[in-house]
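Our preliminary data section would be incomplete without showing what the modeling component actually yields. Below, a chain of 213 amino acids is followed by its predicted structure, encoded as tokens that our downstream tools consume directly.
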Amino acid sequence: MKRSILSLALGLLASPAWANGPPATLRYNPPADAERPLPKQLTVTADANDYVVDLTFNRLPWGDDCKNRCASVTLFLDTDNNRGTGLQLGKLPETGADLMVTIQGDRDFKEKSSQALLRARVRQLTSELRSPEEGELIADLNQRLDPERLVGHGTRVTLRLDATSLSIPAGKTMRVVYHPPADKALEATTRGMLSGVVPGSPKVEKGKKPKRR
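Predicted structure:
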């Protein structure tokens, strides 16, 4: 018997990928007067063939409560932890990013009505680009059409991005960058797709230069 969408969603939220190893964890204290919901904790890791992003917001990030001022959060993933590949922006922390992930509360407008929608967009970044917004859109997910990949439950949002068809650099470590509005960028590293971590392995291998596919 097929599992319901609700059970799939709860299963994704209840079984974090980082049970197999430590994720990149970023913590932020959003200002009380912020117009939009902001994440207070962000965790990112590679799990099997997926990049997993998990955000906990300071208030409901999507739905009817936030109306037209819902969350719009962008993360940068340097999937091989190599600033010489991917987006090139000089000394900015985002230099080296290979993916830009945007998670937002949106609305699906119809002729006489609209419906709240949780959406995730992913762009691939290369060194030829002048800005990350020019990156190729490689995924556009929403929780209605992609319930196994994008889940919103209360203030928590989890995204699983299938990396099997992506032609991007990969390494043993991955760097994550989140740049809050009008604040300094936050960075952390975690295991990458080539880490070789298996269930029960406590740490990512360190001390060697990441390899690229």
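Helices lie at 5-14. Residues 5-191 form one domain. Preliminary results of this kind motivate Aim 1 of the renewal.
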